[in-house]
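stuck on this fold:
=====
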Amino acid sequence: MRAFWASLDRRWRRSDVGMPPLRWQACLFVTINAVILSMLLFDAPIGASEAPAPVKHLGELLTGFGDSAWLIYTSILLFFQGRAGYKLLKTARSKAQALYVSWIGAYLFATVVFSGLLANLLKRAIGRARPDHFHDYGMFSFAPFSGHSAFESFPSGHATTVGAFFAAFALLFPRYRVAFIACAIWLGMTRVMVGAHYPSDVIAGLAFGGWFSLLAAIVFARCGLLFKLAPDGWPLSKRLFPDIEKPGAL
């Protein structure tokens, strides 16, 4: 493990790529306005009523995807399986594939775990009451660090995990990014279907998880792992085995 961290340190030090100038102010502005509009237009109707039984049942079937535990275990498995494959396999191509899988596991672990930890800290610090307490406290009731799960609504931890996971895959496999974004929205909104969160909680969680995955991808690109930085600073997924032009091809 010491050799692993030493390798990362060497990669970071020898890279001359700086952190890109992302337009985070504009994105933060859009996110804040989306959250505020959702609070003003959608949160009160959601809190004052209950989703129809078929919608709630659908949400209950799908919402477990946002539980971070299985994603963490899967990412750990990918990492160690890849490292083991790198040591045991013989051909250079197989070793490269195994190493690639191990870094995907490390990237998913970092995005899911650390975004989840920060989201949980935030929702405890903010202390917004959940929708099932709407009639008791309203939708603008806050009890920071109350220690009670009833006041841990904003942002949604499940939505943060979903946003981080699918943003990571959208960055790794950009060809399917539209499908990944659609999955993130649907699975994030299951938290509204089951009555656990307001729409604004989910929007904030999805945005937070997505941005965390993007920043993690930039750090990985800085280390020369999985991604490379485009001229505008956006992380692009590296191709494991780039196509080689045929001799004489124009």
The first strand starts at residue 227 and ends at 229.
